[in-house]
Amino acid sequence: MKKLIAGCLLSLLCALSVAAAGNEPQRDIVGIKLSMSKEDAHRQLQKIGRLEREERKRQEVWEVSDPRFSHIIIGFDKEAQVRFVTAVARADGQRMSYKDIGNLKKARQIGNVAINNYHYIWVLAAHGKEPKGLVVARGRDPQFFTTYSIKRAD
Predict the structure, then answer these.
(1) 106: which of 12, 21, 24, 54 lies 20 to 30 Å off by Cα?
(2) Which helix (H) or strand (E) holds 87?
(3) Distances (CA, A) of 62 to 59, 65, 112, 121, 143
(4) How many CA atoms lie within 13 A of 89 on its CB side?
């Protein structure tokens, strides 16, 4: 079982590296994509965690058992489709750098690094049924992010 988990983690990290090397960030976080139905998102999240709380404006917070992320925050539109998904980095887990998400040369950095505010944004073009999106990584550390989001650009 440990070998299976290690193999899955290695595959996931390789996929992240390939996505970063390919210059475009991944279009999902822990299998959650923009415009995915609420039911499909719940099915995916139930595999790795539990619903911690529901918040106003159709938002949910999930505690997850992922070596990189402690929580997933997900928001739904009026049609019960994913409008954003945010991963909160696990403080004591596998740290991920901004460059693990995508090519930093293709991102806009809008934070003020003088006060340790790192804020990178990548634009995702519409793809098939997936709408145009933004990938946002934020943190106080110059190398590792604290939150990582994918949200609709509309």
Answers:
(1) 12
(2) strand 82-89
(3) 10, 10, 30, 24, 26
(4) 21
In whole angstroms, what is the distance from residue 97 CA to residue 45 CA? 23
Q: Mean pLDDT in the chain?
A: 87
Element (H, E) at 100: helix 98-101
Quote the tokens at residue 97. 């750098």
Q: Which helix (H) or strand (E) holds 89?
A: strand 82-89
- Calpha distance 127→139 (Å, rounded): 28
C-beta separation of 130 from 143 below 8 A: no
Q: Which two tokens stand for residue 53?
A: 């709380």
Buried b (16+ CB within 10 A) or exposed e, 2-35: eeeeeeeeeeeeeebeebbeeebbbbebbebbbe
Domain span at residue 77 reads 2-152
Q: Does residue 143 register a pLDDT over 60?
A: yes
pLDDT band at 22 (very low <50, low <70, confident <90, very high): low
Q: Which residue has the tokens 């949200």?
A: 151
Whose structure tokens read 């943190």? 139
Separation of alpha carbons 10 and 4, rounded Å: 10
Whether the CB-CB separation of 118 and 139 falls below 8 Å is answered with yes
Question: In the chain, how many domains are there?
Answer: 1
